[in-house]
Amino acid sequence: MRIGLVLPEITESYLTLARQIGVDDIVTTLRGAPGAQPVWEFRPLMAQRQRIEEAGLTWSVIESLAISDTVKLGLPGRDQEIENWQRSLRNIGAAGIPIICYNWMAVFPWLRTSFTTRVRGGALATSYRHELMQRGPLTPHGIVPEEQLWESLAYFLRAVVPVAEEAGVKLAIHPDDPPLSPICGIGRILTHPDAFQRVIDLVPSPVNGITFCQGCFAEMGADIPAAIERFGRQGKLFFAHFRNLRGTASDFSEAFHDDGDTDMFAAMQAYYRVGFAGPMRPDHVPALEGEPNDRPGYSLWGRLFAVGYMRGLIEGVEKTMGTAP
Length: 325
Ligand SMILES: [Mn+2]
Prior knowledge:
17% strand, binds manganese (II) ion, four-stranded antiparallel beta sheet, eight-stranded parallel beta sheet, 325 residues
């Protein structure tokens, strides 16, 4: 299993720290992007990849390559933006970065109603209560039905999957977080395990697959090992977010990796059973005592703790299952 990590920024110090705790892969985006430029150019991609490689690590996932609401909502002007995305995709492939994580959340990105929920020992986690969020007004986009998002996703995939195949880049769609629909009038479609099957079947291709965000699947109330088996057996798990929480979509709190509802050992066993070899990164963590809560979900110490826990689980699974992908 390969463990990935998002760094607060790409510095020599953070790269060294990642190596020290046993991380193999860096998951990041291009500094300045997204939104700073319509097309990601080859040279900065290649230079950043070299920098990560020279530190003994691999830049294996771009998370994320932004997709505008124009494209997600299927609005006029999307063709030009999709063309730019295709050009970025070609440059990403040429730079040798094998996976892009993207999502189809329009208007609202990942949403929480609190960033200061107390979990074990008073650590600060994020949480979501749908009932609070739904008191909010409609957005300027009004009501956006789910079918509109399915249409625009199909349109997008038909345009980019052939380019991704040529470029040798895997497209790994991330669930909606929280997986509820609609939110203040905006439909959401990646809210159930079956929706991922629908995406896979929309444009069948070896490069069309999934970011298995375990947290989102837990929010859905899914049986986590069963979902890993379902998509892993099809070879569709390209990338995983390892996360734990308490509750379900309409009311949940994030948790330490070893302190939520999900049986994380059973999850890790399932990844091994289906031959998933990573990359997998720790997803959201609480902010610990002594560090700022200025990047909710992505504070550093909680992720160091998470990586140690993941390495422990991996060792346990390898020793008991006798496999080491
Ligand atoms: Mn995630």
